[in-house]
Design goal:
By secondary structure, the protein is of the alpha/beta class. Helices cover 36% and strands 21% of the residues. It has one domain. Strand 3, helix 7 and strand 4 form a beta-alpha-beta unit. The radius of gyration is 17 Å and the shape is globular.
């Protein structure tokens, strides 16, 4: 079986489990973990993730953060200085994190984001190395009222998530959805 189809199958399995209402926001996060080289194939399957979600009786909301950094940087007064000296950008990155937090928070609190909805976050690989996904999740976790699905290009092993297999991992309360052993391609 194709690895992306296998991941979709595991997502369907997760959708079919009972949703406990007494979980904290951090425990309502699902991390769909896949190798970074599958990013384009996972994105191509987003309509299938949407269909699987709706088929199981849940609403689907997609929030794509891929262009968030470039849009934020283009709006900055000192963008030309940042282009000339990228290291000068470091003190402004907390402002980018706050902007991203507000945007995701708005999606999480949208009227469609009911207690039975899945809010899918795609494009988190584009945040590397500007911000850590763990920092972002820590800031939005209290606003997760339904389920937050993070499409996560990286790895999960021994309880630790590693974005793009590039940083030290972090342990998080999220439920991992991983590609089962034996899936090919």
């Amino acid at each position: 079986m194709d690895r992306v189809d296998a991941l979709l199958g595991e997502y369907r399995r997760q959708l079919s489990l009972p949703w406990r209402p007494d979980l904290s926001g951090a425990e309502r996060v699902w991390m769909a973990v896949y190798p970074p080289e599958l990013e384009r194939r996972v994105r191509a399957k987003l309509p299938d993730f949407d269909f699987a979600t709706r088929e199981s009786g849940h609403a689907w909301l997609l929030h794509d953060v891929t262009a968030s950094f470039s849009a934020w940087l283009a709006a900055q007064e000192y963008r030309d200085a940042y282009y000339a000296d990228p290291e000068a950008l470091a003190p402004a990155l907390p402002q980018f994190l706050a902007t991203l937090e507000a945007a995701i928070g708005a999606t999480l609190s949208a009227p469609e984001a009911t207690s039975t909805a899945v809010v899918a976050l795609v494009g988190v690989g584009s945040l590397f190395p500007m911000i850590r996904v763990s920092d972002l999740l820590q800031r939005v976790a209290d606003r997760v009222g339904s389920r937050l699905l993070i499409l996560f290009p990286g790895s999960f092993e021994r309880g630790n998530y590693r974005l793009l297999d590039a940083r030290d991992g972090w342990n998080y309360l999220a439920i991992p959805i991983t590609i089962p052993e034996g899936a090919s391609r």
